[in-house]
Design brief:
4 strands; single chain; alpha+beta; Alpha-Beta Plaits; 4-stranded antiparallel sheet
C-alpha cells in the first residue's frame, strides 16, 4: 500500500514532508461492527463517521487521519486497517488523500 500511495503523491507533486489528510473507507455488514471498528480507530487517533452505505445494505465507516506520509508508515497503517476490517468481518475499501503543496 505504501509504495502505491507514495507514487501517487510524487506524481501529484505533493509535499511529503507535510501532514496529509487521509480518508480510509471500510464497509461492514451491520452497524454494530462498524461502530466497534470506529471505536478502535478513534482510540488510535482517527476521526470517524458511520453511516449506511450507498447500497443501503452495508455500513460505511469513513476514517480520517493526518499523516506525514512515508512508505513504512503507510504500510504499517495499511496492515493495521486490513486486520481491523477482518476482525469485524468487513472490507477495507481504499483511501483518498488531499494533495499538500509546498507553502
Amino acid at each position: 500500500m505504501g509504495i502505491d500511495i507514495m507514487r501517487v503523491l510524487a506524481e501529484q507533486k505533493s509535499d511529503i514532508n507535510q501532514p496529509h489528510t487521509f480518508d480510509f473507507y471500510f464497509y461492514f455488514k451491520d452497524e454494530i461492527a462498524a461502530r466497534n471498528a470506529a471505536d478502535q480507530l478513534r482510540d488510535i487517533g482517527f476521526k470517524t463517521v458511520i453511516r449506511l452505505g450507498a447500497d443501503n445494505i452495508n455500513w460505511l465507516c469513513l476514517s480520517t487521519k493526518d499523516i506525514i506520509p512515508s512508505e513504512q508508515a503507510l504500510n504499517s497503517i495499511g496492515n493495521d486497517l486490513e486486520d481491523l476490517a477482518l476482525k469485524y468481518q468487513g472490507e477495507f475499501d481504499g483511501w483518498e488523500c488531499a494533495i499538500t503543496k509546498e507553502s
